[in-house]
Amino acid sequence: MSLMPVAEALERLLAGISPLETEHVPLERANGRMLAEPLASTRTQPPFAASAMDGYAIRSTDLGEGRATLQVIGDAPAGHGYSGTVEQGQAVRIFTGAPIPDGTDTILIQENAERSGDQVTVLEAPVKGAHVRPAGLDFAKGDVLLAPPLKLAYRHLALAAAMNHADLPVIRRPKVAILATGDELVRPGTEPGPDQIIASNHAGIAALVEDCGGEPLDLGISPDDSVELASHVRRAISEHADILVTLGGASVGDHDLVQEVLGQEGMDLSFWRIAMRPGKPLMAGRLGNTKVLGLPGNPVSSLVCGLLFLKPLLQAMLGLEPQQSAPAQAVLAADLPANDRRQDYVRATLEEDADGKLIVTPFAKQDSSMLGLLARSGALIVRPPHAPAQQAGTAVPVLVL
Ligand SMILES: Nc1nc2c(c(=O)[nH]1)N[C@H]1C(S)=C(S)[C@@H](COP(=O)(O)OP(=O)(O)OC[C@H]3O[C@@H](n4cnc5c(N)ncnc54)[C@H](O)[C@@H]3O)O[C@H]1N2
Ligand code: MOO
């Protein structure tokens, strides 16, 4: 049986995938979304020269030798500029954010002033232009300040607001229908029958989809029955899912019906069976406009395949350069035997030694049903096909989880 190399499978999966269409969402719902278009400012900020301090707006030419005393002719709080012109020997009481009155060019902070009635005496002369924010200090109208690829975060949203964009163009979140299969499965929180277990893969894959910027759609659990399975698959299509993820039923057993049913529904198979461990029975195809990714049922296989294949697929649909997380280098703390023909993703703990070096310790057991070990893992050691035996102390590539 020939198995496809991981890199080739990934390349096939991502071929021809382009970013989804643009939609507009209100600023308050744009956190974490991918910006779809360059965003130019609709205004200049600050729109006027503004005071950066509370104090007095003065004319620097009034500051000569010795202490100047000026006449305070008005007030300029933020939002209410002083409308007149300040002449020689005059000053305006001003507050942070207020426009600099005509005729003035400098702010005397109130700590360096002594006020007496409508007179103010300069105790410590400021330099010309002190504490004045010129118009456009932050940005000017027309400046393109945010551009794709960009995942919008709090800093970008504050800037978009300052640019006066109430709605933002973002890439539509890929809708990912997730369908678990298997007579043995029941939902978390329910009581399994004597031969049943709790379906766990769904929860993990849905969270991964959310982390990657997608929108999970729960299609529930289909029993191992062709008719039921087909009706669940049709629901994914009628919901216009961008991706249908099936969980389990991908292998060769008599009850592994997923590929057969998808075929009957018209799926164009791209590949099945990968030279990797865990995750050998991974399958991919296309059903109309919906990409299909068949993840193996074993929980660790499901999640590792999700990380290695579903994540880059979502990234590509969101306009990000799809890249598998770049491996880091870590030092093995235990010997590893020679690898066979499947690329291995070995569950391992990860620590830093006193010198800041990463130390990776593989778990002795690597069964792909053991979610407890995956949850305690800090990394996956990546072992290429036919990697020779490696001894403790050797540097190996790891995917940090
Ligand atoms: N004769 C062979 N048997 C198997 C092969 C093979 O090549 N020849 N491959 C093995 C490998 S590798 C894997 S991985 C599994 C995957 O098989 P399926 O994708 O068909 O998965 P199932 O048989 O449906 O389930 C496997 C295992 O995982 C449990 N499971 C399934 N779905 C869930 C879920 N949503 N949450 C939690 N656990 C789930 C299921 O109960 C089974 O224990 O096949 C091997 N067999
Ligand atoms: O590949 Mo299976 O995923 O080894 O358990």
TrEMBL record:
InterPro entries: MoaB/Mog-like_dom_sf, MoaB/Mog_dom, MoeA-like, MoeA_C_domain_IV, MoeA_C_domain_IV_sf, MoeA_linker/N, MoeA_linker/N_sf
CDD domains, sorted: MoeA
Catalytic activity reported: adenylyl-molybdopterin + molybdate = Mo-molybdopterin + AMP + H(+)
Keyword Transmembrane helix in annotation: no
Entry keyword Protein biosynthesis: no
Pathway: Cofactor biosynthesis; molybdopterin biosynthesis
EC number: 2.10.1.1
Domain MoaB/Mog: 177-316
SMART domains linked: MoCF_biosynth
One Pfam family linked to the record: MoeA_N
Key words of the record: Magnesium, Metal-binding, Molybdenum, Molybdenum cofactor biosynthesis, Transferase
Cofactor requirement: Mg(2+)
NCBIfam families according to UniProt: Glp_gephyrin, molyb_syn
Family from the record: Belongs to the MoeA family.
Function as written in the Swiss-Prot or TrEMBL entry: Catalyzes the insertion of molybdate into adenylated molybdopterin with the concomitant release of AMP.
Protein name (Swiss-Prot/TrEMBL): Molybdopterin molybdenumtransferase
